[in-house]
Amino acid sequence: MFGFKKKKKHKDSMPIESILALNYKRIQYASMRDPDTYKEIRLGTDGALNIIADKLHIVCSGESVFACTLDELSAGELMSHDGIVLKGFDHVSGEERTVTAFYLKKD
């Protein structure tokens, strides 16, 4: 009797073009929340976001601290535009992670 339209699935990730534009973006530090204590854990400082072989890597001090394939990655910029939240299967740790990378501030 009543026709209900199905709502389109809300895509909570940035478009792939915006993610690709982050290649070589310098970051101040990367962090994540500990799922048990909810405290912030710093993964590394002085790094960059790099896209290598269809994976987005967060590299801090020369070491990859997070790597996720672009098709598994969900990304959203912080409202302040000071950083980005990345969620996906991390090939470095071998588990699903949510990581926040804070951009290097320009003076």
What attributes characterize this protein structure?
mainly beta; 1 helix; 7-stranded antiparallel beta sheet; 107 residues; single chain; PH-domain like; globular
Written description of the protein model:
- The chain is mostly beta strands.
- The protein has one domain: PH-domain like (Roll), CATH 2.30.29.30.
- It contains 1 helix and 7 strands, in the order αβββββββ.
- A 7-stranded antiparallel sheet has the order 4-3-2-1-7-6-5, with no helix packed on it.
- The radius of gyration is 16 Å and the shape is globular.
- About 7% of the residues have low confidence.
Low-confidence regions? 4-10
Q: What is the CATH level 1 assignment?
A: Mainly Beta
- N-to-C span: 62 Å
- Quickly count the domains: 1
Number of helices: 1
CATH domain topology: PH-domain like
Q: What is the CATH architecture assignment?
A: Roll
Summarize the biggest pleated sheet: 7 strands, antiparallel
Structural class estimated from helices and strands: mainly beta
Question: Would you report the number of β strands?
Answer: 7
As a percent range, the share of strand residues is: over 45%
The ordered H/E elements are: HEEEEEEE
How much helix is in the residues? Answer: under 10%
Shape: globular
Q: How much is the average pLDDT?
A: 88
